[in-house]
Amino acid sequence: MKNTMINLLQKYICGDASDDEKMKVIRWINASQENRREYMALRKIYDIQLWNDAANEEKPLKLSSSKNRMNIIYREALKLVAVFALAFGVFQLLHFSSNDELQSVYTPEGQRAELTLADGTKVWLNAKSKLTYPTNFNGRSRDVVLDGEGYFSVTKNEKKPFIVHTKQYDIRVVGTEFNVMAYQQSGFFETSLIRGAVQVVTPHSVVYKLSPNRKIYSQNGKLYEEDIKYFDHFLWRKGLICFNNESVADIIKKMEIYYDVTIIVKNNALLNNRYTGKFRMKEGVEHVLKVLQLKHRFKYIKDEEENIITII
């Protein structure tokens, strides 16, 4: 791996890369399975060092630009590639389909990405999200598949609707701007309409029409509609995680998704407390927990090998 790519990976992992640099990293990771393993090895070493530094009450680690330091990290990464790949199951990271007409982009935990589709539609992907889309929209509709959270600014084309397929529901639009949260692992679904119009279609072909500044979400297998009350949530596109009077239980669920970590809470009294605030995604899950500690008294311990945090 060339030093220029090592430096670029540093910036990406630390959350300091520009949008152009992020796309360069994504393309590099997509280029080969070996690149994916090397990325995850570097990422794992960075995470371990962050946790170790936090335990020693030091400042969060910033990967040094020192060539010697990076060479050491890189050599250690190569030794641990197999272990980390098995532990994280990441061989599908940024996987491109063998079908030349389809491709997929996956954003790792703590990261986000922006891309433009063939029709000019802009898509922002939140952490741990995967978008599958065709190189060109040649059919009667513009179909993409989303697992995770995405913000779409769709180029208008009344003759060719744009359809976002998720595990539970489909979102059909012509030209509009909306946010979709549909992580398969959580089973939760939510579509928020910023402008234009969308239709949410159930597996039984029941159609729900949504008006601007309204959202529709699933709960216990049913769909509910209400006004969007907190637009700051969509600032995740700029790397901000925002909470508005949300319970600690809901905050923890989001942290588990965004950072691919398991959080076990033994202090149940903590779960019903509510919090309003903003965090930069690159600051990590432990930063969020430390801020919550300022308002609510609790302790937590970490299992670095299993990537589990236990709140006591």
Count of extended strands? 18
The proportion of strand residues reads 25-35%
How much helix is in the residues?
Answer: 25-40%
Distance between the termini: 43 Å
Structural class per helix/strand content? Answer: alpha+beta
List the total number of helices.
6
Q: Give the oligomer, counting copies of the same chain as homo and different chains as hetero.
A: single chain
Radius of gyration: 20 Å
SSE string = HHHHEEEEEEEEEEEEEEHEEHEE
Overall pLDDT score = 80
Overall 3D shape: globular
- Please outline the major beta sheet: 13 strands, mixed
Concise overview:
This protein is an alpha+beta fold. It has helices spanning 3-14, 19-31, 33-55, 67-88, 248-259, 285-295, and strands at residues 102-107, 113-116, 122-125, 129-134, 142-153, 162-165, 170-173, 177-182, 190-195, 198-201, 207-210, 214-219, 222-227, 240-247, 262-265, 274-280, 300-303, 308-311. The longest helix has 23 residues, at 33-55.
Walk me through the structure.
By secondary structure, the chain is of the alpha+beta class. The chain has six helices and 18 strands. It has helices at 3-14, 19-31, 33-55, 67-88, 248-259, 285-295, and strands at residues 102-107, 113-116, 122-125, 129-134, 142-153, 162-165, 170-173, 177-182, 190-195, 198-201, 207-210, 214-219, 222-227, 240-247, 262-265, 274-280, 300-303, 308-311. Strands 1, 2, 3, 4, 5, 6, 7, 8, 9, 10, 11, 12 and 13 form a 13-stranded mixed β-sheet that branches. A three-stranded mixed β-sheet has the order 15-18-17, with helices on one face. It has a two-stranded antiparallel ribbon with strand order 14-16. A hairpin with a 4-residue loop joins strand 17 (300-303) and strand 18. Helix 2 packs across helix 3 and helix 3 crosses helix 4 (67-88). The longest helix is centred in the N-terminal third of the chain and has 23 residues, at 33-55. The protein is globular and about 55 Å long. It starts with a helix and ends with a strand. The model is unreliable at 48-100 (pLDDT under 50).
